[in-house]
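Page 47, continued from p. 46.
Same chain as before, 402 aa.
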Amino acid sequence: MSGHDELAAARAPRLVVFVGGFDPRGARHYYRLFCEHAALQAKVDQQAYAVGPRQALDVGGHRHAQWSFSGEEGGGDYVFFDWSDAVRAHWPRSWWPVAAQACVTYAVALKDWRVLRAVQRQASNTLLSFAYPLVYIVLALAAAVGGFALGWRLSEGLASWVRWAMPAAMSAAVLWGSAALDKLLHVSWLLRILNFANHSSQSDCPVLAQRTCAMADWIQAQAARQSKLEVVVLGFSVGSVQALHLVDALRRRLPAQHTAAQGEPTSVTLLTLGNCIPLFSLMRKAQALRATLNDVAADSRVYWADVSSPGDSVSFGMCDLMPLAMRGAPPPAQAYVNPRHMCSPRFHKLFEPETYRRMRRNKMRMHFQYLMASEKRGAYNFFAMLTAPGAVRAFVEKYLVR
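Result:
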């Protein structure tokens, strides 16, 4: 362990391990986002948020990143758990392989159409968001066929090569336009997430599993060296699923660790923002994920709070999460202590009405708001939560639980 790690472990009252979503961008992008919006939020809150320099962090031979953060009352260290290389391995650059894979994914999902009824009842907007790319693909193909038919009709009586070239060109133009429009509608972004959910339910990623275990060992070492260290695992978007795996690995290591003052097992706080857990756990072959979810939900040493907005149509906000995520057949409710809270950030309270309407029209912008500054002061404040003088869980219970 480096001297920097030792110094961080000695001074940090809080260790936040951030697991980002299904995003090929790595630590540099998220560090820049953190710095930019910490400065913007500081103007709203009329206080200073300090962000230290980004430094490389080697954990078990895997490269992550680390920086410090602080407010006027508290702070700690922020570790960026980097799995962007695994994302890039499942991120085709071209629209066409994404769409082709999505056809297979939708076929798998629609086999379990009865399970989707529960999603429709609890999160109809989310279901529509993940269904509309299929409609987009169907319409694009229909328009391409229509373009070919129109070109065929217009080229009637012309030379044979024109008779074929014109409809082919019109059909190709329609398909090209559909792919270009995706840059505005973010259809392929949703399709990539769907494809990854299907893929991860059918096969494990050994490298990612090894990385998760190595990070759990590293966190355990920090907690062992500083008994009062608050450990917060923060999973954003699809990262909520990866954060579950990290917390599961961590809780298996923590029973042997006891605080010097109380002699109680060290606990961990799991905070999920804009969670996508049911999207992954509802896949028929996702038995391993459902087992992990069951174990974390039943472990009293884990304090899990979910903050997800019903207005964020690509997350599962304010759902009855466990029955939904466990395909409607979980153990009795009393077997679960987690999630302790399902909270809404109430984004509409943080912005002027016109600003909020613009946000709602951009699914990606709305989804990233959990990590960004607000226009007005309100209950949800990403930076105030991380720099709160007490525990993060206390901030959640004071400001977000209704």
